Amino acid sequence: MTMRKYFLSLFAVIIACQAYSQLKTYQVDAGKIKAHIQPTMYGIFFEDINMAGDGGLYAELVKNRSFEFKTPLMGWKEVKEDGADGSILILNRGEEDANNPRYIQMASKSSKGYGLINEGFHGMGIKKDDQYNFSVLAKVPTSSPVNLRIELINQKGEVIGGTNIIASSKEWKKYTSSFKATETDPKASLKVLIDGAGMIDLDMISLFPQDTWKQRPGGLRADLVQKLADMKPGFLRFPGGCIVEGRELETRYQWKRTIGDIASRRMIINRWNTEFAHRPSPDYYQSFGLGFLEYFELAEDIGASPLPIINCGMACQFNTCELVPLNELGPYVQDALDLIEFANGPVTTSWGKKRAEQGHPKPFNLKMLGVGNEQWGPQYIERYKIFEKAIHAKYPQIKLVCSLGPNPDGEVFDELNKTFRSLNANILDEHYYRSPEWFLSNAKRYDNYDRKGPKIFAGEYAAQSVGIASPENKNNWQCAMSEAAFMTGLERNADVVNMASYAPLFAHVEGWQWTPDLIWFDNLQSFGTPNYYVQQLYSLNKGTDVVSLTLNNEPVTGQDGCFASAALDNNSHELIIKIINTSKQEQKAEFSIKGVIPGSKGTLTVLQSDDLNAVNSLKEPLTVSPQKSEIGLDKNLVKLDMKPYSFNIIRVSIAK
Ligand code: AHR
After folding, report:
1. What is residue 517's predicted lDDT score, i.e. its pLDDT?
2. Which residue in 103, 325, 175, 229 sits closest to 540, CA to CA?
């Protein structure tokens, strides 16, 4: 570098530093309401990817409980205690039970323990003193009763809990027993043994913790649901994601197969089983123990509006793009209509009755439905039109979500955008898996959207630290902070953007296929990423009405690296200011408030790290986590020393 260039760049740095260190006065005019914020604004996108469902949220501890994996004994191993002798057969009932055809026959010839051991999902997470519920479908082909010994085994091979069952029924019968674990182990396994000589047929071998969410038998993992409840989400989108589509139509998501008796919910391969060669998951299947009733109940439990997505007659366009001919779309459309009846219909309707039979007579108040997941092209549009006509003919009040494809720009996006707008579509689902820089430079994305057109659902987004679906992507602070900055743009445009959700939601630390993800877990614990805290903070500090916040009469969309928005909360009578300082300089700010009378005190919540690469982990879950303190006001002025790389939320009470 020449001396001249050196001094010029030094001079530029000094000028920039001066700009950052100058006190900036932001004007907040709470009398100028810009938009109403929908209660649905910040929600959750759930998909059974990364072991989010089986092996994750669904608390079943036994993998391949009904022997329906392609390899029937995957997850199971034969056990011969002290040289015991026996045999195991895989039997098939065929049409007698087409949804659950396989079962096993175990025969023991000696007096020693003989049977199987199940490895769980990367082990079974067992907690000392917690109660575990074992159940099995069994029948005894001979006249002699069989003594089943059930044992939980820790990683050292020691017994840490167990029970005995004597089976004597010649017909299929469900046997249950409960026991307490004596030790904690994140990777226990379960032995199911015949004690003594005998023969028995077994199916649906199951073990659940008693301590599930709301203590529901066969329910969901309480700590993971709690993480969702803590977000106070506005909506729950389910069941995905590409899982709706299937790699081929055969493996698409069919909601009717996911309700009712769990033994009759036909298990199929999970489409993420084979998706990524770099993360093979040969044991990833869908038991549908977490099915549509459970999704609706989950939404209800956490106060979220349900948003189911249905297959529109198209398999995943990144895979086979298998299409249902238009004249054979009838059953697919009927599935959509029946789903609405299942969710909302009185118990006198046939699907409302099924809901009631499953223990939920009260309707779920479904208001939105997604037609297709991440579809595009003319084939999608022609299928969408058929769905839309049939659904709105019967249920005109249901808002339909339609896809704008996998990218937020480009020819495919433009075409879909133009077409769906011309069709007066209700809600457009945009997806962006882009770099942190993209998020920063798109904070104004919605500023010029048509205010009278369809509403926007930012249905899947996440900043990618390396590149889309790269296994090297990290949930680091840079990504989370850029999402926070971008979200000021969602909030400022809440009249157009009605819903937003980060994706994907969950990942098992050993069983993932896709990263980054919002919440990570192992078999016993979970942690929220910095991105989780960004989502949570937006949701908990949503407010009801966007108000004007400007710097030099302009919205704050990146000036000196700052992004900001403000909202009134008419329920709690507070003013909420969000400001993100994405620069590495500390910055001095003051907010001059008019249009309301603020109190003399408020709170400041800060999510911050000096290190853009900072991440949370199971060992250090709170490295980047919100810190709350009190702040004082000087009449209508709030002063804030913004730390570098910080997301700041100010809440001040206002006179009613
Ligand atoms: O979130 C992961 C995947 O990304 C979703 O399944 C799909 O809709 C998108 O391509």
Report:
1. 98
2. 229
- Distance (Å, whole) CA 432 – CA 454: 18
For the chain, list residues with pLDDT below 70. Answer: 1-19
Q: What CATH number does residue 431 fall under? A: 3.20.20.80
pLDDT confidence of residue 21: 74
Q: Is residue 14 part of a domain?
A: no
In a domain, 3, yes or no: no
Q: Which of 44, 45, 46, 47 to mutate to test the pocket of ligand 1 (most atoms within 8 A of CB)?
A: 47
Alpha carbon of 406 to ligand 1 centroid (Å): 8
Helix/strand/coil for 582: coil
Ligand 1 atom nearest residue 243's Cα: 6
Domain C-terminal end among 542, 565, 583 = 542
Residue pair 160/181 in contact by the 8 Å Cβ criterion: yes
Dist CA 645 CA 566 (whole Å)? 19
CA of 38 to the centre of ligand 1 (A): 25
| CB neighbourhood size of 102 (10 A) | 18
pLDDT of residue 4: 57
Q: Are 508 and 603 contained in the same domain?
A: no
Mutate to test the pocket of ligand 1, among 237, 238, 242 (most ligand atoms within 8 A of CB): 242
pLDDT of res. 5: 56
Please state the domain count of the chain: 3
Q: Is 171 a catalytic residue?
A: no
pTM of the model: 0.96
pLDDT at site 3: 54
Range of the domain at 596: 20-36+546-654
* Relative orientation angle of helices 377-394 and 330-344, to the nearest 10 degrees: 40
- Residues in contact with ligand 1 by the CB-under-6-Å rule are 47, 49, 240-242, 373-374, 406, 460, 503-504, 514
Q: Which atom of ligand 1 is nearest to the CA of 45?
A: 1
Query: Does 281 lie in the same domain as 197?
Result: no
Tell me what pLDDT residue 143 has: 83
Secondary structure percentages of the chain, helix, strand, coil, to 5: 25, 35, 40
* Cα-to-centroid distance, 240 and ligand 1 (Å): 7
* 241 alpha carbon – ligand 1 mean position (Å): 5
Bond preceding residue 363 cis, omega within 30 of 0 = no
Does 292 share its domain with 146? Answer: no
CA distances (Å), origin 95, targets 102, 136, 204, 205: 11, 21, 18, 21
How many C-beta atoms lie closer than 10 Å to residue 159's C-beta?
Answer: 13
